[in-house]
């Protein structure tokens, strides 16, 4: 058999790993959208590297768009197999993919208008997929709970274990029988933090022969930073209370937004939440928060303890969810201090770009980054300390304070990743493939793994096929 890495190979988006068995059965692990890759993004999303109609099964680790965002395109191009996921992953995928289809349509319409006014304007510009493609894809989902063995083929069984990354996230464990021999392959998906603010820690898993392992923060440690609540309090107090400015927080709709709300709720329970307005300016974030509320089984013991006295740990005084575009625009015209939490997390798209454009030019404001940002994204450029950035094609001096809380990452650092792998006997792991990471980070993480006793570690390139 062999595995080909059609995404998240020496970068952090577009997760797609195609396993081809000796009998020709093809199992795709994740089908993600490339994001934040600059001018390459459209080209990368337009070419799978394989023919979708030849794929027999799709297994999703979780619902982040860089792991599931090209599923409707896969279906539109002929895939008709089952799509396996946890129940919460399907619930999240439904709202995220429908939202993505709307964005695809809007982007295509905008591109058509620009091309129409260009002297070179010819050729059709189409969305990657439509809402109808999403609906067709949702009809192919088969949901399976954690820790249940299920068959996806005559000689292939699968099991999900909790990866602790976002609600519903799973590590995928395949057991394949070929020529009288069993081969066990684990795909980590994205590995969460041990001691996460909301979710249970990643589960231990049975011995694997091969591991496809994410490595986003393979050279970083998060835990040296202070508690999230205290960091949020200090930034909000300094910006909104003392400087009378605004705090703009680009945050992914799934996971990060809910963690921020939970931390702010914790400040209110302690009586120390600054008395200012708090806005979640993302309709998708509101829906994702409701999905999390619908799946309390994923909460860790700390959240369950809070819920004994606080029925809604994601709500507090002064919080308002913004729905309409007119309300979002009004926030930019309101000079009063406030906190605005808005998607997207890398500040590459969505309403948050407008809020950053509106606040970036004044020293009283703060832009707070709370997760991974691809280096070429707007968030990545701000995190790197660039003094000038371009927003909607216009140059902006970065005068607002730029802060980050790295400990809020939903990705484990290298100690978390090593702990995830600690249930494995290194002598029995034939090979580890590092994916979902920048190449320089992966090379440093490879050394950490070698120090832990793992001997055979590869860092595949995009579309590279490797026999196993």
Describe this structure in words.
The protein is an alpha/beta fold and 468 residues long. It folds into two domains: 2-220 and 410-467, Metallo-beta-lactamase, Chain A; 228-408, 3-Layer(aba) Sandwich (Rossmann fold). Helices cover 31% and strands 21% of the residues. The chain is built from 14 helices and 22 strands. The chain has helices spanning 41-45, 65-68, 71-76, 87-116, 131-138, 228-242, 256-269, 283-294, 301-306, 325-333, 352-359, 378-383, 414-421, 439-451, and strands at residues 2-5, 17-20, 26-29, 57-59, 82-85, 141-143, 150-153, 156-162, 170-178, 181-187, 210-214, 246-250, 278-281, 319-322, 338-342, 366-369, 388-391, 394-397, 401-404, 431-435, 457-458, 464-467. Strands 6-5-4-3-2-1-22 form a seven-stranded mixed sheet. The protein has a seven-stranded mixed sheet with strand order 7-8-9-10-11-20-21, with helices on one face. A six-stranded parallel sheet has the order 14-13-15-12-16-19, sandwiched between helices. Strand 3, helix 1 (41-45) and strand 4 form a beta-alpha-beta unit. Helix 4 (87-116) packs antiparallel against helix 5 and helix 6 (228-242) packs across helix 7. The protein is globular. 47% of the residues are buried. The mean pLDDT is 93. InterPro entries: Beta_Casp, MBL, Metallo-B-lactamas, RibonucZ/Hydroxyglut_hydro, RMMBL. Keywords: Hydrolase.
